[in-house]
């Protein structure tokens, strides 16, 4: 599987009155063609900021302070705004969280679908309307809903419209930032199925962002876990399900109840996320980590690639493994 | 059409009821005042003639102490368009006095109101689009300054600078003293020359509020998700700015515009006084000073009707510009 998107050492920061906030710090991952890649983590960990950085939607004062983003062999961070605008929607489209505010309340659905099409291909003219009708059918909405205003649709229908809109120009990458968070679970289920079905049909890649880890484990092939602006682990779904390695990943998984397994008290993760203006000197998760060793306090663990994926944790570096074995041996004797 | 007949009938019905209440209050207010202002409506002393006073008293039912009788007479005269006779301008009927002042007020206050909103909106849009820019900061600072300065003070300062020291504009009045002898072209020139400074003052004095309100609204709209999505869609900046941003930010300001238009007919009392401009505001002010009850009543009635009509228009236009309203 060749890579569609490569994010290398991406850093995003913004100035605040107290100092510079490193919202995203040295994040590296890639998404294959036709892959659904998940980015998970709790609120404020930088997952949405990463997505906005890739799609150049960061709001002032946030800005990319380093790293590169390569889409289909093209470096994006050095493009001029005009060049980037041509690429928007035709190569990268986005589905945002809030079903209520995703659509302009004073424009008909048809206008909002058509203006995206015409912005990139003004010669479409009348055909744009037909294209919009096809898109509505694609997401199982009646064609006559094109002439509705957003407030006349339910939250689920609106989110379907947004998904149809995202596919209008057959982009190679669709960024979905919590696309179903504002919806109830039944509607959510229908939308997720639709997304997976459309993805299979058209073969676009998805960068799927959510804090709903069980949902992510259901649909994503590979998953990246972010914590306090850092990518701490990237692994396949199977790996995360069976043998999560980073203590934070383990903590996240322990925070969700299991439907089928034995009833047990959820542990959660004690403590709270660190201050991103003055993050901990070593591993950012160290103050909350139950398995921390000495290096964790002073040395930020690098993201290392190995057989199981990518991991940034001293426990899995060679010294860490040695130390663990030593302490295990110590306990035995 | 986005609204149905029920909406239409309801709105017009509300407007008619409001109008009736306003007319009734206008009848009651002078009669509730201390002293006997009601009989002063046809005061012999003011009218200077016993016969005229008696005729007027009969016409308006003042010869009968019953309030109901007077009320019926008042409504009847109103329906005939008879607002009584102005004392101060005897023997001109109130309607004539009002109609003479109206063009001056409409010409200046209406022009100023429309321009002030238009300019204020454009500045507000430009400022909110690039917050923190030099343009935004300077208009914001000026707006805060202007909105905290009293209205009449600006007028006086402008007259001092532009009329008194620089001599660019007349000190007051609506036309040149020799106006009647002018050819039509010089007449037009004289009117514009005299109207410029009052209009300019009105615009400057009201501009700040419109800038601040629209800038605020647009800043709020710009943080909505649909603005982010519009950008992600690669839409042109102008479409995002006007069809997505300003279009939504203008909705709350539209109500403000219609309310202001409703008050146009009342004139701009302070400005008209400072510029000795013969508009409705000046007429009303003088009527109050002169205890010219019929004229006060007439003026209040005009203001009430125009506010009600403008509100009705706002109610009828709003569903056309905001699709969410018709259903409510």
Describe the structure.
- Chain B: It is found in: Cell membrane.
- The complex is a heterodimer of chains A (333) and B (328).
- Chain A is built from eleven helices and twelve strands.
- With 333 residues, chain A is of the alpha/beta class.
- In chain A, the strands form two sheets. An eight-stranded mixed sheet of chain A has the order 6-7-8-3-9-10-12-11, sandwiched between helices. In chain A, strands 2-1-4-5 form a four-stranded antiparallel sheet.
- By secondary structure, chain B is mostly helical.
- Chains A and B meet through helix 2, strand 6 and helix 3 of A and helix 10 and helix 11 of B.
Q: Helix and strand succession of chain B?
A: HHHHHHHHHHHHHH
Query: Which class do the helix and strand fractions of chain B yield?
Result: mainly alpha
Radius of gyration of chain B: 24 Å
Structural class of chain A: alpha/beta
Q: Could you give a short account of the major beta sheet of chain B? A: none
Number of strand segments of chain B: 0
- Provide a count of the helices of chain B: 14
Overall spatial form of chain B: flat
Rounded average pLDDT of chain B: 85
Largest interface: A-B, 29 and 23 residues
- Based on Cα principal axes, name the global outline of chain A: globular
Helix content of chain B: over 70%
Helix content of chain A: 25-40%
Mean of all residue-level pLDDT scores of chain A:
87
Q: What's the oligomerization state?
A: heterodimer
* Helix-strand pattern of chain A: EEEHEEHEHHHEHEHEEHHHEEH
Could you provide a short overview of the structure?
Chain A is an alpha/beta fold and 333 residues long. Chain A is 33% helix and 24% strand.
